[in-house]
Amino acid sequence: MHAFFPAQAPRRHAAPARSCLMQLTVDVAAVTDLRALVVRTCGDAMQFMRVEACDHGARVRVWLCLSRALAGQVMEAVMRALPGAEFGRLTPLAHRSAA
After folding, report:
1. What is the pLDDT of residues 33-85, one digit of tens each?
2. 7 domain-assigned
3. Cα-only R_g, the chain
4. Is residue 16 part of a domain?
5. Quick check: 70 and 42 in contact, CB under 8 A?
6. How far apart are CA 85 and CA 27, in angstroms?
7. Structural domain that includes position 80
8. Number of structural domains, the chain?
9. 80, part of any domain
10. For strand 48-54 and strand 86-92, is the pairing parallel, antiparallel, or unpaired?
11. pTM value?
């Protein structure tokens, strides 16, 4: 190969995974199972989890901040393990550029 052409194509930096905010509602008795399921599925990739009581304390609304790819995996796992869960919005989050 000629000296001016690299043997491999130049590597590009992978774009960071797009984060999203996933909203769901579960029975209050299932929130511990939900948390364990999310941690098992996402590990350290989950950025935060917010829990708020609703329906007079019988259910909880949960917001998860995670990557879009993990959101699909979490949805699948939740549908299998917690059939009473209700899914809400999946909102993409804007990325700030490092300046």
Report:
1. 999 999 999 988 999 999 999 988 899 999 999 999 899 999 999 999 999 99
2. no
3. 19
4. no
5. yes
6. 7
7. 30-92
8. 1
9. yes
10. unpaired
11. 0.75
